[in-house]
Amino acid sequence: MNQSRLALDARAVTLMLVLCALWGLQQVVLKATAADIAPVMQIALRSGVAALLVALMMLWRRQPMNLRDGTLGAGLVVGVLFALEFTFVAEGLRHTSASHMVVFLYTAPVFAALGLAWRLPAERLGWLQWSGIALAFGGIAYTFLGRGVPVGNSAQAMLWGDFLGLLAALAWAATTVVVRTSRLSGAPATQTLQYQLVGAFVLLLGVAVVTGQSRVNWTSAVWASLAFHSLVVSFASFLVWFWLLRTYLATRLGVFSFLTPLFGVVFGTWLLHEPLEASFLIGALAVLLGIVLVSGASGVLQWWRRRATMH
Fold it and tell me: Tens digit of pLDDT for each residue in 254-281?
């Protein structure tokens, strides 16, 4: 299993910026259409459509789904983790704002860095990254504790939704660790993605039916949202993400993930008119700075050394 990964270049930076904008917008679109289609149902349907598109792409490339290459076990695991992540996202969006959800969900690079450092020597953490982890966790704690005692059902519901966002981040981080430390690390990106999409479609559709969230009011906004999520998010963006994950160092890619919460907060306040609490903004800033330190420690140190040399 090839463990070699490249440093970031202009191509990777550009792709990550585009992905961050798309991923920041997806939570807002899910929230905006939640009255006509429950987030869990929408994610299930988008995963099914995207799985069909990936299957067609693999057929066109003459790239069969190889279930005998030793990836099946890990594939089943990441399929369950992927479904679990978006179950938490869908349920969390019923209680908290899209702005909150996107910030907590994208703490995943911090958890992934811890998991990868534990499993892979090449991903070990330095003192600057440990400082970033401490700062990120401090920011998470402040967003919860800085609000004081929740008053009313809506405030308590928002705390619950925020907590589900953190659980989603843990599931996403676990997916990254499994992909990087199993045979999936060397498997085609389409195969890795297909494991997750099929898992999400089957499991989330079951969740939607069991919990009574399968009803859909087929408005034009719902069709547009499904097209955006199926074609752009679940198909194109995740395919690019897994290719990046197989090509570049995972913790280095994460440095740009701090832009996704920023895009999400901007889109949420602009399109959904969501309010922003002072405690959330302060805590979110600490989280984002922590993510930068965790994922981009080498870049930060190089910049600091260049500054010191100039002086």
Answer: 667 677 888 888 898 899 988 888 888 8
